[in-house]
Specification:
Glutaredoxin, Glutathione S-transferase Yfyf (Class Pi), Chain A, domain 2, four-stranded mixed β-sheet
Length: 214
């Protein structure tokens, strides 16, 4: 498989984790989002949205959107399952994953941050207030659910890794990048730290990818 990603991309991070957990060989080409490589015509031809990740597997157009890619990997490489077999548990995992990937992460991606500062003349410190608010909204929802719902175990759903954990870990790593306070989320912290201690998560970590700052 071939993937276009970026060291800092939370979406590429969660796909990278899944590839490593499932033992799928891949090559990754890094797109410099800060330099605007995602806007170049040659990359727009790959993904008209100008976003990463984009995954090629054999013939056909690339797969985009991290949750869709995770589902594809689950269906094509089921031997290391990252979704529960039980329908209700599977729905809960997808719900928790979507809190991150659909309702939280999209609010702080570079195109949103740059638009806020450019279109509304928003100072950087005010933009960062918005980013931290977005993080807090998602983390508060996750903490409330994971600390009270009976499905929570060692990980977000029971004692096996799932898509929810990949998304949770990608959000948690972002709290350090954006200096987000985290004391109010002890359950999220426990699960995130357990995930990030696993080899696949460590190998896929943004700071271990080409282009990451020392």
């Amino acid at each position: 498989m071939r993937m276009y990603g970026n060291w800092r991309s939370a979406a590429a991070f969660r796909v990278r984790i899944a590839l490593k957990l499932k033992g799928i060989p891949y090559e990754e080409t890094f797109i410099d989002l800060d330099a605007g490589d995602q806007h170049r015509p040659e990359f727009r031809a790959i993904n008209p949205q100008g976003a990463v990740p984009a995954l090629f597997d054999g013939e056909g157009p690339p797969l985009t959107q991290s949750l869709a890619i995770l589902d594809y990997l689950e269906e094509t490489h089921p031997s290391v399952p990252l979704l529960p077999a039980d329908p209700r548990e599977r729905a809960r995992v997808r719900s928790l994953a979507q809190v991150v990937a659909c309702d939280t992460h999209p609010l702080y991606v570079p195109r949103v941050r740059n638009h806020l500062m450019g279109a509304y003349d928003l100072p950087r410190d005010r933009m960062m207030d918005f980013v931290r608010h977005a993080f807090a909204t998602g983390l508060t929802a996750l903490e409330a659910r994971l600390s009270t719902e009976p499905g929570t175990g060692r990980y977000a759903q029971g004692d096996r890794l799932s898509h929810a954990d990949l998304c949770l870990a990608s959000l948690w790593v972002g709290t350090a990048i954006f200096d987000v306070p985290t004391d109010a989320y002890p359950t999220v912290r426990r699960i995130a730290e357990e995930c990030l201690s696993q080899p696949a998560f460590m190998e896929a970590h943004p700071k271990r990818q080409p282009g990451a700052p020392a």
